[in-house]
Amino acid sequence: MDVKKRVILSVFGLVLLLGLGLVFLTIKNNYTYQNLIATPSQVPKWEADVRPLQSEKQVKGQLQKLNQKNAGKEVSLTDSKFVVIPGLRGAWSIDPKNGQAAFGTDWVPQGLTQSADDYYVSVYDGDHHLNSLIFQIDKKSKKYVKTLILNSKAHVGGITYDDDHQRLIYSDDTDKMAGFGYLDQARIDAYQASQQQAPIKSEKINWQLGIRTSAITMYQQQLIVAKYGFHQNDRSIVSIPLNKAGFPPTISDQGSEMLAKVVDTADKKTLEKVFIESLIKSGYISSFNHGWDRMQGISLSKSGIMIVSQSNGRHQGKLLIRYRMPDPSRWEKMNLTSIAKGPATVAIPRAVEEVSINREETELAMIFESGAKKYRKNNYPFLPPDYMDRILILPMQVTNEA
Predict the structure, then answer these.
(1) In terms of Cα–Cα distance, which of 120, 119, 48, 55 is closest to 88?
(2) Of 67, 85, 133, 402, which is least surrounded by CB within 10 A?
């Protein structure tokens, strides 16, 4: 056999080998992907699958790579604690069309908050068929407690806990208007989906001034609401004053007429300025700031530390840190989006959503949506999976820096 034929056969053999390898890896990836999806028979009715998608060793391996990018920032992701996000393989909910129990496998994590005893995680159905859920997780044992089935298919982008009133607050937006759902702790404690076989009863307050809520948090008797948007004029951070009972103001008919007149202002260049000033003067909001690019989560501690999460698609996420808030006595003058001392950014895993500082200000917890079925599928067979199926908890320390 001459040299030319041997070269052709060698090249053909190499191409064939690579092709077979690619086919094998593709089949293996698809098998792995399908094996991470639960069936209804594997999960007790009215509950959520609590099995992780990957080992803790794999999780730590992802964080180790990011540690190099955080060198010199006094942040070590290897000091993290982990809590498995329930329901990523599947969870039971209710189909609002017939009110019957239904099993979903595409739950997308969005919100995260914590009380003294529990973490609360909000998820929505990526298939948009079933009611949204909130998972309760015991902080001490790090184990799933139960599922709260909401009476809505809302995105539930934001969730926060009001320690003063022992109340869970979550965003309950419609396509046209923002809203907030309220669940008192006593009602949460009494609810068992397997017994009620119905959504948990909650109060809802519509908020006529927004949609697309991505995060909410509490600070100084204010509800801080972050709105996601691709353009500067679409994204914002708004503080809403709460009354003594812990509820935001509602816009009266007279207030609605006032807002309509503002919208009709002839000078469009000053429209936003006049509009915001009118809202502040009328007491509907306390402050307004344009948000950051790709802003997802926001959390403020009682001492004024503010941490914002930024999601960057397939690329690593970031934390933006501000050590101290300005004097809150004049909310309308506050510039929430200026960053003070501290690391300007901290690299974290991709697809980060909401963040939550515990009330002792010793830990920062964060959640990711990359573990959802629609995002975790690996379309690149030569690359390892790149998703987070854990709540990531970082130690933090409050300093006296101003």
Answers:
(1) 48
(2) 402
